[in-house]
Automatic annotation (TrEMBL), chains A, B, C, D:
UniProt GO molecular function: formyltetrahydrofolate deformylase activity
Domain of life of the native organism: Bacteria
InterPro entries (alphabetical): ACT-like_dom_sf, ACT_dom, Formyl-FH4-Hydrolase_C, Formyl_transf_N, Formyl_transf_N_sf, PurU, PurU_ACT
Designated name of the protein: Formyltetrahydrofolate deformylase
EC number from the UniProt entry: 3.5.1.10
Its biological purpose: Catalyzes the hydrolysis of 10-formyltetrahydrofolate (formyl-FH4) to formate and tetrahydrofolate (FH4).
């Protein structure tokens, strides 16, 4: 049995759902998931479809047919994924280890369904963790003067290992526009505040200073503007006046881990689409 | 512009989605909501569809066509609702007023989109509230000896006012099997615990005794077995050892109100289906 | 049996707790609540104490003794409240009714333990609600030209009715510095976002635009700077891409009501202290 | 600077707080945390106190003084802990690895402040994880016939390594009454439901069957009666009709991890007391 996932967006028109569902029905597909959303403000239609095929299934031909018979007509942006294809996820870290431990624990427990070709860091501190989990570790230091070479080295590694997407597990360096344009909507960051509050550095310090009663974490795609990319997932936890900044950092760790992993999983399962700097999340 | 909502369940078969979406597409309907669910264990297919029609739209004819062309073939249970039809909701209460105040506040704020033909109670205590909100109030006392007449009186009122569904806003009497069979999946109760924990009387007392750290509330359809009907909505709030039973009751009020109103709204918007004593909630 | 509540703040020193608890023990008080907090950054000590007295209890004498024996020595800010004194709470509204309905429902249900001498509005829309609940209503329109008189009228009413504190139940006018200085930390506002995100007007519109996955509400004391006063309580609810601005407004209502009422209750129960534009909340 | 934590419970009497705070004040202690609770139903007083001492501090003498001067008079159950003493925590596991990974990640990140002398399992599956984290692993198989020897072996290891408390990270064997009586309120279990709902085996299956809209996890002390011990911490997550049992198991993992780790930390920080099969949690 083969399973494929279709993601579509295009100008909204009547009849798209009927047309698309017919297309797969005619090919003996069984729809096991359908959801759609219309951005009425901009007149854009979005759809996610999962189809199961019990017979032999030629994805190359289906893609060609779909392009010819449907996508062209509606001028669609679309992707058809085969489930068997396992994504390759690179992890970038600096010195904080909690998100790394969490991802690797989930990875080993079989929760993610990805390959992790390597862990990359601008510091050597977390190399032993990579080793304990049996994953290649690359130390690519970044200084003011070596920024360009460092990035070149990073891109070289990403290409060599055919990485599909990158997760920044508290990686404390700015990602360059070049890298972002090479991996559009494929670099996932965890920010330790409920954005747009407390963007930028030291959000726990700012939260403490403002006296908020909840702190948050935000998982988002990286764009050129810092902490302003499309939000994939957010969550919060309650705090009180009695919590010090150190307490916030500690409490925040659990939030960061859980929000980050939820965001990563949504991406892996191709449940996210991006439009106008916002995400559509098909759950 | 007319808007209709379709609810379907039937034995799962390939092609239902394509067939149904085509049906509406051919009639110039524009699908603005589609969601489906397959209970794989029992092989049952569920779907909810919202269609907008910009042209004249003959719901009687569409219903007849749908029955003939589709529903018969697939042996469907189905309903097609026109949005204009405003539901009539009766409220049953006893002495607690918090859920009543909450519902009436929402009603007056235009949040519910129903008519409330009357409030019925086995006590007179809450009559002034009904009066303040300008809603007819019926006092139907229930004692051991008058149970049968009381119920007859209730059914009479329900029929007279053509009530569609009943909400039990902390109504402290058992609903008879007869009443339940007259309003299947149309009597909505709020129970003050996270069912199945603490079913029956005095759940806050039991929660206190067990030393739980969360209390809950459950909104469910009433069935013959007490507190065992299909769950529509649940939520919880945190408590601690320092909360007395009185505190739990007070904290629980807010939970009851919010969970009850969410459940009622899901019902009004026809987002609920019931199968095998469980709900499918299309959100 | 008399019950008194003590609130203290002063420069942190060793021995305060022992000294204060002794003071009440010597007068046959029974401590039923004690909590303290030290702002280590600024070296400030905060304490809340509830004492029960089974014998006759002369609060005037106790206050004098406390000032002489303890407060002077430690240079304390302090207040000793007798529980019997019922606070007077004025409600300011404009056109939105959901928070008003919620407060009045709680008030009638005996949940708040305050008097409500009047409801004041710059519009006439909500007068019928005041009437239905039997509470005096004052219409004080505010225009550019009548601002000064309007405020004078407001202050006159507040003084005439000996109002202790004011709650702004979605009151859509700026509160003047004069009013704020007359009621320091006694004007409570509900803002419909998780501050500091989306301060100012139309937070739901901004939340929609940014594509956040959670929306919030914040209950805070009003200070001269808009939406920047000490936060008493916050909470959030999850949203998705599929929610329109109208949906956010509707979902936000429930948040506003619950967060507002929690903040108001903390204030009424004298569980809040303010320092450095932050609250200490003794729960 | 030395820091000590005092836990007390005794029959409630007036003056205990003043007496105890004086005791530490006279010895130049600075109270940095005080909280108390009175179980009014049973007339029992509970207190937790943290004291900092800047001078030399003789804990042995203070303990003797406290017993003589205070504890005897009030017939107290009490413990005075020195902060420097690091607790020894044994981990029991079976085949599920998610809780183990989570604990070990936190341990390595310095979050727990305990020693882990060993991991013990009735299966060999998780030995590689113990090895990767550099922690001794003991395989003690348990079968019907070897139950008694297995337990003897377990107790021998616990004594040899001077273990303070045991955490059952999804350990799938019943703990014997003997073991429980050797470690009263020192064996911590994670149960994958919001107890008292779905006690016993397969709670996710039961939750699925009942159609609940929230699932939970409960961290509790182990007592002779299965899943009925004092609850330390609980939390929940929302589910829908569309989640299969497998989904519940996966979603539940995150809940189990977070609830378990919170419960363990409360225990390590001596913030828990047990009375009448309920916990008092000093936060």
């Amino acid at each position: 049995m083969a399973k494929v996932t279709l993601l579509i967006n295009c100008k909204d028109k009547s009849g798209i759902i009927a047309t698309v569902t017919n297309f797969f029905h005619e090919r003996n597909g069984n729809i096991v998931y359908i959801d759609q959303y219309v951005d009425t403000e901009n007149g854009i239609f979005f759809m996610r479809l999962e189809n199961e095929f019990s017979l032999e299934f030629d994805i190359v031909k289906v893609r060609a047919d779909f392009e010819k018979e449907i996508a062209k007509t509606y001028n669609m942006n679309w992707k058809l994924f085969a489930e068997e294809r396992v994504l390759k996820m690179a992890i970038f870290v600096s010195k904080y280890d909690h998100c790394l431990y969490d991802i690797l624990g989930r990875y080993k427990a079989g929760e993610l369904g990805v390959e992790i070709p390597f862990i990359l860091s601008n510091h050597k501190d977390l190399e032993p963790i990579a080793k304990a989990f049996g994953i290649p570790f690359y130390h690519v230091p970044v200084t003011k003067d070596t920024k360009v070479e460092a990035e070149a080295k990073q891109l070289e590694l990403l290409q060599e290992f055919e990485v599909d997407f990158i997760v920044l597990a508290r990686y404390m360096q700015i990602i360059s526009d070049k890298m972002i344009s090479e991996y559009p909507n494929n670099i996932i960051n965890i920010h330790h505040s409920f954005l747009p509050a407390f963007a930028g550095a030291k959000p726990y310090h700012s939260a403490y200073k403002r006296g908020v009663k909840i702190i948050g974490a935000t998982c988002h795609y990286v764009t050129a503007e810092l902490d302003a990319g499309p939000i994939i997932e957010q969550d919060i936890t309650r705090i009180s006046h009695s919590h010090s900044i150190k307490d916030l950092i500690l409490k925040g760790r659990d939030l960061e881990k859980i929000v980050f992993s939820r965001g990563i999983k949504l991406h892996i399962q191709r449940k996210t689409m991006v439009f106008n700097n916002k995400t559509i999340i098909f759950t």
